[in-house]
Design goal:
This protein has seven helices and no strands. The radius of gyration is 17 Å and the shape is elongated. The N and C termini lie far apart (51 Å).
Length: 172
């Protein structure tokens, strides 16, 4: 129980820091596709923090029932929507704040690894599944960041990438 409490506190801090980071970087980014992705990631990190807080509160109160995990949210439809709304010139705008973008990808890798470690160490099946869900969402965030980053910074390389690794609807 003590270990899970520590994991939830670490996860909550990580998600709250992520929310602050993505909110800040979305305001500093002018490229519309990247801006929308960062805004969507901020929303996701906030949702993660809420779910973590629900579980944390249930453990603190001694409740036997833990909140059910919610289905994973995909960022791809959000990015796809803005992609099709943008004209060709706006899609071609260079990615500004490249260093912030790289930091975002590193942060998502760190989250994935942290949740993987937590999932491996907890004994309760529901707790393990919760951390695996968060792990998969961090992986999906990284994939979203990677697709948009490579599309905006190296389109030729992006087009040549294996189809299973890219959002091929971006090639239209």
């Amino acid at each position: 129980m003590k270990r899970m409490d520590e994991y939830l506190q670490a996860a909550l801090k990580f998600e709250e820091d992520g929310y602050q980071f993505y909110t800040k970087i979305s305001k500093e980014t002018n490229q519309p596709l990247a801006k929308r992705l960062f805004e969507s990631l901020a929303i996701q990190e906030n949702e993660h923090a809420k779910r973590i807080m629900e579980i944390y509160e249930s453990l603190q109160s001694g409740s036997e029932t833990k909140p059910a995990s919610r289905p994973a949210f995909s960022l791809e439809p959000e990015v796809k929507k803005i992609f099709y709304e943008l004209d060709k010139d706006k899609k071609a705008m260079p990615l500004d704040n490249i260093e912030g973008y790289r930091l975002a990808m590193e942060m998502e890798k760190k989250g994935y690894n942290m949740y993987r470690e937590f999932a491996e160490k907890v004994e309760d099946k529901r707790e393990r599944e919760f951390f695996r869900l968060l792990m998969e969402e961090e992986k999906e965030h990284l994939s979203s960041l990677d697709n948009v980053y490579r599309f905006l910074t190296g389109t030729e390389e992006w087009y040549a990438e294996e189809e299973s690794k890219v959002w091929n609807w971006m090639s239209t």
